[in-house]
Write a structure and sequence with these properties.
Blueprint: E1 19-26, E2 32-39, E3 51-57, H1 58-74, H2 79-84, E4 87-91, H3 93-106, H4 112-124, H5 127-139, H6 143-155, H7 157-162
Antiparallel strand pairs: 1-2, 1-4, 2-3
């Protein structure tokens, strides 16, 4: 008898998973920084050293710091202690996905209202949609266009509904 092509997936504990961590630090002139890094693991054999996925610093980080700390608290990580010193903590793939997308989207922005609208939108989109946008932003030749499109989708839905 031939083996089925569609074998049931192995239990999650047996499957290696990509590993991510959040790193806090200080940039020049004493501005705080937060970065998401993907670290080598058995699930990512092509990764030989840690790879930076996204980061945020200064005023933009200050605007969403409370969201960041709340999410870290949900994962039982003391974000306040980490952010006050140069520290790093392992985070789940789900959290890394959302924070990376948030950081990449907000990094070049300057309008506070639009930044808050984007942060709210990223909080409310589904996991698959967030993964789609992050994948597009990471693996395209020109990610600025992808992130611009995401910002438009997240900041102007009321305008499009009225038309």
């Amino acid at each position: 008898m031939r083996a089925s092509r569609f074998a049931p997936p192995a239990p999650e504990s047996d499957q290696p998973a990509p590993r991510y961590e959040i790193r806090f630090g200080e940039a020049a002139a004493g501005t705080a920084t937060a970065e998401i890094w993907q670290v080598p693991s058995p699930a990512t054999p092509q990764l030989k050293k840690a790879r930076r996925i996204g980061g945020l610093k200064g005023r933009n980080l200050g605007l969403v710091e409370h969201r960041l700390l709340r999410r870290l608290q949900q994962e039982k990580i003391d974000g306040a202690a980490l952010s006050s010193s140069d520290g790093a903590a392992a985070i789940s793939e789900e959290l890394a996905l959302r924070l990376s997308l948030l950081f990449k989207t907000l990094a070049p922005m300057s309008n506070r209202e639009r930044m808050l609208a984007c942060a709210d939108g990223i909080d409310n989109i589904g996991r698959q949609e967030a993964a789609y946008w992050l994948g597009m932003a990471m693996h395209r030749r020109n990610p600025r266009r992808i992130l611009w499109a995401l910002r438009v989708v997240l900041t102007e839905p009321e305008k499009r509904r009225k038309d």
